[in-house]
Design a protein that fits this description.
This protein is mainly β. It has one domain. The protein has one helix and five strands. It has one helix at about 30-35; strands at about 20, 45-50, 50-55, 70-75, 75-80. Strands 1-3-2-4-5 form a five-stranded mixed sheet, covered by helices on one side. It is globular and about 35 Å long. The protein starts with 17 loop residues before the first strand and ends with a strand.
């Protein structure tokens, strides 16, 4: 099913460890900053195409979350700052 929408075979979505989210009356940047400022221990937080935020957690309970913040858009992938 994930491949039907262009997703990767190794996606955390398949494991139930990721979600793409939007918030009513909040921009993707607002949502990114809210999550960054929270106590959520995410593995990856990605602003994708300035349309939604991807958030994932590790599927290994003993693994330390990377707390990786990225942007993915037409220009490629880079650190979120």
């Amino acid at each position: 099913m994930n491949s039907a929408i262009g997703g990767q075979k190794t996606s955390q979505h398949i494991l139930g460890c990721a979600a793409d989210i939007r918030a009513i009356n909040k921009s993707p940047d607002d949502l990114m900053l809210y999550i960054i400022g929270s106590d959520i221990k995410y593995d990856q937080l990605i602003r994708e195409f300035d349309s939604w935020v991807h958030i994932s957690i590790t599927n290994d309970p003993s693994a330390k979350p990377r707390m990786q913040k990225l942007i993915i858009d037409k220009d490629g992938t880079r650190a979120y700052s």
